[in-house]
Specification:
Length: 271
């Protein structure tokens, strides 16, 4: 379980980042061409990580400004969007009230301020729990996965995007982007405290499998994503540490991201 002081620190960080870059980026993505994952911008249609969403109840954890939730609603899902940051949710509420460029009403869905380690949602209330760089890095894995499993119905799916362990091993102590040397080992990834940044968790693949299995979830897929990098398209992590105003999501630059997996998209199911 994440210490209360660390939860407060991370909330303050994302309230600050929302006003600097995150909200503007998220609002741009509200009106994009559908669901795209992370820095790579990989289309959901190419990965099929979410499955059929029309008519399903979906909970997004760490929604930020909630562009993913907006696209899910457009596809017919019933969505509850959860985030720790009041500032991020305020920006999401503003997007719901703003007329979209393409005409018609903006997608509306509940916005809930909560810590993903203590979800105020009923047991077995969701068909899909999803997070794109929302909780996997910022919450204790055991705690938030337990909550995701609790709210999932039998047969429900969990899909979450986070930094690859390799990228976390290669980010300098003062913050991103990742270099071409291993700077920390697997044991160092459980909790990383970035100077001037947040408190993060970047488990190895084996550790993720252990956590998911311990909470009754079966891994169906692991998509190791490469891509352009360098441009802020997701609430990503280690790059926040060095200088949030310069490159808030700088996990890796384009050359690094083209050569090695920069992000992992996990898909698991509750049998």
């Amino acid at each position: 379980m994440t210490r209360p002081e660390d939860v407060a620190h991370n909330r303050e960080l994302w309230d600050q980042l929302s006003g600097m870059v995150s909200a503007a980026d998220g609002l741009d993505r509200w009106h994009g061409d559908g669901i795209r994952w992370g820095l790579s911008g990989t289309p959901e249609a190419a990965l099929r990580a979410l499955g059929e969403v029309a008519g399903r109840t979906v909970v997004e954890l760490g929604c930020g400004v909630a562009p993913l939730s907006a696209h899910l609603v457009r596809q017919g899902a019933r969505v509850i969007a959860v985030d720790l940051s009041w500032a991020q949710l305020a920006a999401a509420r503003g997007a719901q009230q703003a007329p979209p460029g393409g005409g018609g009403p903006a997608p509306r869905f509940p916005l809930v301020q909560a810590d993903a380690e203590h979800l105020p949602l009923a047991d077995r209330s969701a068909d899909l729990v999803v997070s794109e760089h929302g909780v996997a890095a910022w919450c204790d894995p055991e705690a938030w996965v337990a909550q995701a499993s609790r709210v999932l119905r039998r047969g429900g799916r969990l899909a979450f995007l986070t930094n690859s362990p390799l990228s976390a091993m290669c980010v300098p102590a003062q913050g991103g982007p990742a270099g071409d040397r291993l700077l920390r080992g697997p044991a160092d990834l459980a909790e990383i405290r970035w100077p001037g940044g947040g408190v993060e968790h970047h488990p190895t693949h084996g550790a993720w499998i252990d956590v998911l299995a311990a909470h009754g979830l079966v891994v169906e897929a692991l998509h190791e994503l490469t891509g352009p990098g360098g441009s802020p398209t997701a609430d990503a992590g280690p790059g926040v540490a060095a200088d949030p105003g310069a490159d808030a999501y700088g996990i890796a630059d384009a050359a690094w991201a083209a050569r090695w997996p920069v992000e992992d998209l996990w898909v698991a199911r509750r049998p």
